[in-house]
Structures are given as structure tokens and as C-alpha cells.
Amino acid sequence: MSFSRSVTFRALFLGAMATSTVMASVSMARADQAGDEQTIRKELAQSMAQLPIDSVAPTPIKGIYQIVSKGQIAYVTADGRYLFAGNLLDLKNQVNLTEKVRDQERVALLKTVPADHKVIFAADGAKKGTVTILTDPTCPFCEKLHREIPQLQKAGIEVQTILTPRAGKDSPGYVESSQIMCSKDKIKNMDIAMARQPLSGDACKNSMIDANMALAEQLGMSGTPYIILPDGSAVPGYRPASMLIPVITGQAASQ
Asked: How far is CA 205 from CA 98, 174, 181, 202, in A?
């Protein structure tokens, strides 16, 4: 065997060994992760049986895992003994890792909402983005934002509104929301309600508003209006259309 062939063979051999070592390390890490997930699910099922676990995922901190339950995020040790809630911050990169996961969860949750649970205001012309607004017909700032929906539409933004009465089931907002969702022309009746004019239709018995209220809790809604941007980030409270338009179209263009 020539010297050049010997060197080539040695290089290939060492390269193969290095690749095998890396693959073995990855396989071991995956096995450890799978074992930790099983342990966490088992321990939490015993200590917190009422807590449904949607997902378990590793964090950048060794031995600490992230769990998601009905849109809520918490952290747990690999042995399932210690659990804590709060924001996990990457100080070096100045990133709220917990909020990034919340954004992803909101995007996923909104994809599960049936179209007939929303009142959708289509964009004028070519659609340049979509925004979701959780709203209440008895909320003054919701009314103010609703009056600016035409500005969003003219900017090419589709506005998907989800009626979520902030005062709960036994409230005027719940009754009006039911009247809107049970009507044949939801857009017309929502415009009437947001103008503080009386609705003529009766509230019907349906589960849409109840489902929307449960969704609002999972999305982390703290009040209305509650604006969810294309990337899943949430903006609580009123913001003028002039402020929202560049953010929505900019995010949509980058996706």
C-alpha cells in the first residue's frame, strides 16, 4: 500500500470513528431524554393527577425540563420531584425563552379554532397578514379598536375576531356575544353591538362562546381586547391600527 493510500485510509478510518462516536452520543442523549420524560410523566401523574401533560421538552439547563399543560408552561426537574413556574430568561442573548414557547403555543391553538367560532373581516384586495383579536361587545376599548378594523382591512390585513366575554357566563357580554354568533349576519350584528345599539335577535344556546372562553384562558388572555400577532406574540389592551399595521405586515412578510 502506498503512503498516500495509507494516509487516505487512516483519515477515512478516523472520520468514521468520530462519526460513530457522535452518533452514539446523540443516541445516548436521546435515550436519557426519553427516560427522563417517562419519569416526569409517571411522577406527575402520581403527585398531580389533575394536571394533563401535553408535552415534555428539554431546556438549555441540564436536568430541567419544560412541560406544557393546556397552554400553561412550567418547569420540572428530571426526577419529577420539583416543579416551578415563571419565565426562563436567556440573559446572554436577552431572550425570554418561556414567552417564545407561549407564542408557538398560541399559533398552534388558534389553528384549532373552527371558522364558525370567529367573526372574520376579510382584507381588502391581496391579503398581507392576519391578526386575531379576542374581544367583548361590552368593552369600551374593544369598541374603539373595532371602529379601526376598516383601516386594517384597507392595509390588506384579515381580522379574525373571537368573542370572549370578560365578565363570564352570567354577563351582558355573554348574552350579546351569543346573539351575534347565533345570527345569520355575524358581521352586521357585531357592528351593531360595537356601536352600542340594541340587537334584535335572541341569544341561542350554543357551545361556541363557552369554547371561546376556554380558549382565551389557554391563550393567556388577561383582559379585552387581546391582540395576537402573526408570530403568536400577544398584545394586551388597545393599540391603534396605525401602530398595528406595520407590525402585522412585517411579521407576515418574514414568515
From this structure: 38, 11, 10, 10
- CATH number for the region 114-254 comes to 3.40.30.10
Q: In the CATH scheme, what is the code of domain 3-99?
A: 3.10.450.70
3-class SS letters over 176-227: HHHHHHCCCCHHHHHHHHHCCCCCCCCCCCCCHHHHHHHHHHHHCCCCCCEE
User: Three-state SS for 148?
Assistant: coil
Written as nine digits, the cell of 114 is 373552527
Looking at the whole model, is its pTM more than 0.70?
yes
Residues forming CATH 3.10.450.70 domain(s) in the chain:
3-99
Read off the pLDDT of residues 78-112 as tens digits, 9 standing for 90 and up: 999 999 999 999 999 999 999 999 999 999 999 99
